[in-house]
Specification:
Layout: H1 7-19, H2 21-30, H3 48-62, E1 71-75, H4 81-90, E2 93-98, H5 101-113, E3 120-124, E4 137-143, H6 152-162, E5 163-172, E6 175-176, H7 186-191, H8 200-209, E7 213-219, H9 223-237, H10 239-242, H11 248-266, E8 270-271, E9 273-278
Parallel strand pairs: 1-2, 1-4, 2-3, 4-5
Antiparallel strand pairs: 5-9, 6-8, 7-9
Length: 279
Amino acid sequence: MSIDGNNEDLVDKTKAYYDSDDAQQFYYWLWGGEDLHLGIYERKDESIRDASRKTVMRMASLLPKLDADTRVLDLGGGFSGSARALAGEFGCSVTVLNLSERENERGRRMNKERGLDHLITVYDGNFEEVPFEDDRFDVVWSQDAFLHSGDRKRVLAEAVRVLAPGGHLVFTDPMMTDDCPKDVLQPIFDRIHLSSLGSPGFYRKAAEEVKLTLCEYVDLDPHLPMHYQRVLEETERNEARIKGEISEEYIENMKKGLRYWIEGGRNGYLTWGIFLFRK
């Protein structure tokens, strides 16, 4: 997956964004506090936190085994919310590899507060260069993180490398549809410093090239615009409270960006779902 500009520069920009004071405050206070990914909604007014946790449990339900013997690697794990859910619910050991050092500091603190730090280890790092040996993990897990990579094929190849034979890759990612017209998503690409998103067809083909077998794809298309709408509503509802904590420029840019995602989803240019592959 090609991008405009240098891939190392993209990694630096992504890290700088998520390490910023504004992003730290926004994602913690307005995006649910545990997770930085999209949710599955039963109601239009459902809390972002509850909807996000439903995504974790839906993904977990697709895996044939999750127990104390399961070794999980979470790529791009944010505040380690999914790791805490998996460790707490199933007792599995989870390794988190995440780019933002500040997110990782908060995640480690929350893991300890929940009494789960003995099951969760958090590493600072880039999922295009996974710092672990071959065949180490039973499950590679990721939620809405691969879109930030300028080389998604490489990310999939790294996931395959560290998966044990018979292991599973399960992930979600906001994607453009396979038939998305050219340039309609340019405002989104500009915000995340990329020239494209992945698509369902791209991931199927790229996974096949690295010898992954598709087990299941769960289409969750309607939940993408609903999630971004909920984040926008919470942002607008809490604007007076967060004034002074998060810069006005950041909030205005965020609201503009959220509307791009909502529009793209409602117009049928964006999609979202869960992929399950086996090595």
